[in-house]
Specification:
mainly alpha; Serine Threonine Protein Phosphatase 5, Tetratricopeptide repeat; two-stranded antiparallel ribbon; 9 helices; about 65% helix; binds magnesium ion
Length: about 200
């Protein structure tokens, strides 16, 4: 198998990710209940399901991700679908027209574009106990990766560490913010699910 991230790869990985988040729905909601409103399992399940369903119908990787982003954003209200929708849309925007298989530099460019688009929708940075604590270090870590397999692995490892780091953080955004110090001691649910998705990508590429 060529070391490239193509549309078939994306379809397969997102179908697996949709299954995984559905299987772990209660776990993600329970984590969110400790620091927020307890809806993250439901939200991430709906978001990734919408993304996967849309992607399965795609005929090219660029427009497939842009369409999946729109589908995810319009699936449900709330920050999870907004931010994941922005991520997917930005990913599609970062793919060059006519390219159907991404090598490591092209995949990195797509992820950088994805992150840039998420930043248009949230001011959260590393340390704010959100999804960004997983995404920002993941995209930073993948720069210069020699091949797609190692790119996905270093991204997953960085996201996992970033999500673990949120345990000690105090939330500054979302409903978790209202809990103040009580948000310390539990990992952020959004960072945890993002790290789990990136780990699944690395394991199954
Ligand atoms: Mg929540």
């Amino acid at each position: 198998m060529a070391d490239k991230f193509d549309l078939e790869t994306a379809k397969r990985l997102f179908a697996s990710a949709a299954e995984m988040v559905a299987r772990r729905e209660a776990e993600f909601s329970k984590l969110d209940a400790a620091t927020g409103d307890g809806d993250h399992g439901t939200a991430i399940k709906a978001a990734i399901a919408a993304a996967s369903v849309s992607l399965q119908a795609a005929t090219d990787i660029k427009n497939g991700f842009v369409d999946a982003g729109f589908a995810t954003m319009s699936a449900t209200a709330g920050s999870t679908s907004t931010l994941w929708g922005a991520f997917l849309m930005g990913f599609g925007d970062g793919v060059k027209e006519g390219v159907d298989a991404l090598d490591a530099p092209a995949l990195c460019a797509a992820f950088e574009s994805a992150l840039a688009n998420v930043r248009m929708h949230t001011k959260a940075a590393v340390g704010d106990k959100t999804l960004m604590d997983a995404l920002i270090p993941a995209v930073e870590a993948m720069k210069g990766a020699a091949d797609v397999k190692s790119l996905l692995r270093v991204a997953a490892d960085a996201a996992k560490k970033g999500a673990a780091d949120t345990v000690g953080m105090r939330a500054k955004f979302g409903r978790a913010h209202n809990l103040g110090e009580r948000s310390v001691g539990h990992a952020d649910a959004g960072a945890t699910s993002a790290a789990a998705i990136l780990e699944l990508f690395a394991d199954n590429f």
